[in-house]
Amino acid sequence: MRIDQEQIHQHNSDMQKLHQKRFDFAKSEIPNAEAIIQKLIDFNVAIPSWALGTGGTRFARFSGAGEPGNLEQKMEDIGLLHALNNSSGAISLHIPWDIPSDYGVIKQLATDLNLKFDAMNSNTFQDQKDQALSYKFGSLQNTNKAIRKQAIEHNIEVIQHGIELGSKALTVWLSDGSCFPGQLNFRKAFQNTLEGLHEIYAALPSDWKVFVEYKAFEPNFYSMTIGDWGQSLLYANKLGPKAFTLVDLGHHLPNANIEQIVALLIMEEKLAGFHFNDSKYGDDDLTVGSIKPYQLFLIFNELVEGMDARGLNHATDLGWMIDASHNVKDPLEDLLQSVEAIMLSYAQALLVDRASLNNAQENNDVVAAQEILQNTFRTDLRALVAEARLRAGGALDPITFYRNNKIRTGLIKERGAKTVATGL
Ligand code: RM4
Ligand code: MN
Ligand code: MN
C-alpha cells in the first residue's frame, strides 16, 4: 500500500489555517526557528524491521491485524511512515528474522520508497530451527569454542548481507551473561567475547562501524557480559577506531544518568548512536517520550552540545534508531508517536540558549541553569516540527491522517486479519 501524495495535500490544506496560527505564534517566540526547521528536515530515525508487528511479553502476544508478513511488507510499512513524517527514511534489518531473498528486489523497493539501509543486527540470543549448537549458555562468551565460532560466523554472515544492501554498520547485542553466582568466570567470559569481537571486527569493510550494545540485565539476571557503558567502552577501545558504544535507553539500571553517559561517550568519540524507547521499570520498550519526556530532552541537550563541540553532523554521523515494541497499540501509530517525540526533543535541544547556559555553569548559577533548561523544555515546538514535515512533503498531523484515511483497514484488506510478523 502506498500513500497518494494528493491525499496528503488534501489533509494539509484542511489543517493549514489552524497550523499557520500556531506556527506564527511559535515563530514569534523562537529566534532561530528557520535554522531549527532545516535541521529537523535533515534528521531521520531508522525503524527496525522487528518493530512493525505487534510485540509480546513472555506471557503472551496478542497479534494485531494486517501485520506485514515478509520483509517487503515491512519495508512498505516504513515507506508509509516516511511518506507521512519524512523522518523515517531508513530500515534496520535483524538477521535471521529478515534475510532478503533477492537483494536486487529489496534494493529496488528501498529506492522506490526512499529508504536507506541502516545498521544490520545480528541475533545470537535465540536458537534458530536449523542451528547446530545452542546459545543457552551464551554465544561469544561460551566455554565451548565451537559455539563461539558459530556465533562469530553468524555475525560475519550478517555483515555480508549488509554489504549487499549498502549498509555501513553492524550492531551486536549479546544476551550473554549468567543467571546465578558462580555460573561464570567473569574474566574468561569477557576475554572469550573480546576474542570473538576481534574476529568480527576484522571482517568489517574499511568504511563500516561496529556498534557494541550493552544491557544491565535480562535475559540473564545475575550478570551480563556487556552489562554497562563502561564494559562496552572497554570493548570498543580494545577493538579499535571502527568500534563504538551503542546506548539503548531501556538498558540501564533505574535512575541511571543517561545524559551524562552520552556526554562522556561523545567526548571520547565513542558514541555509536541510539536505540530510542522509553520505560518505567526496565527494558519496557515503550513509546519514546511516553514516560520520561524531560529525560529525553536532557539527553538531546547533551547530544546537541557534544555533537557541536565535536563538529559532528547531527543527521549522519551517529546512528539513530527506534527500538521499541508495541503490545497494545497499532505499531504504525506507536512509531509515528515515537518519531514525533524524538523530533520534538531534538528541536527543543536546538533551542537551548547555549551561551547563557554556559555562562550560568561557569558562574555556578544553578538557578539560572535550571531556568534555561526548563523554560526551553516548556516551550511548545510542536508547530515547528509540523512545519518541518510540511515543507518536506509530509503530513501536518500524521496520526490524524493515518486514522482519517483508514490506513490500517487498507492494510488488513491487503494482507488479511491474521498475519503475524517475524520478530519477538
Ligand atoms: C534487545 C536489544 C537489541 C534488539 C533486541 C530485539 O533488548 O535492545 O538492540 O535487537 O532486543
Ligand atoms: Mn536495542
Ligand atoms: Mn532492548
Side by side, the strands of the main sheet go 4-5-7-9-10-11
Q: Please report the distance between the alpha carbons of the first and last residues.
A: 24 Å
Total number of helices: 15
| Low-pLDDT segments | none
Rg result: 22 Å
Number of strands: 11
Summary?
The chain has 15 helices and 11 strands. It has helices at residues 5-29, 33-42, 71-85, 103-113, 145-165, 186-202, 229-239, 258-267, 293-310, 331-351, 354-362, 366-377, 382-391, 398-404, 407-415; strands at residues 47-48, 90-92, 116-117, 120-121, 169-173, 177-178, 209-213, 223-224, 243-248, 271-276, 319-322. The protein has 424 residues and is of the alpha/beta class.
Which key features would you list for this structure?
binds manganese (II) ion, alpha/beta, single chain, 3-stranded parallel β-sheet, 15 helices, 9% strand, binds beta-L-rhamnopyranose, 6-stranded parallel β-sheet, 424 residues
Write the layout of secondary structure elements.
Blueprint: H1 5-29, H2 33-42, E1 47-48, H3 71-85, E2 90-92, H4 103-113, E3 116-117, E4 120-121, H5 145-165, E5 169-173, E6 177-178, H6 186-202, E7 209-213, E8 223-224, H7 229-239, E9 243-248, H8 258-267, E10 271-276, H9 293-310, E11 319-322, H10 331-351, H11 354-362, H12 366-377, H13 382-391, H14 398-404, H15 407-415
Parallel strand pairs: 1-2, 2-3, 4-5, 5-7, 7-9, 9-10, 10-11
Antiparallel strand pairs: 6-8
Helix pairs in contact: 1-13, 2-10, 2-13, 3-4, 3-10, 5-6, 8-9, 9-10, 11-12
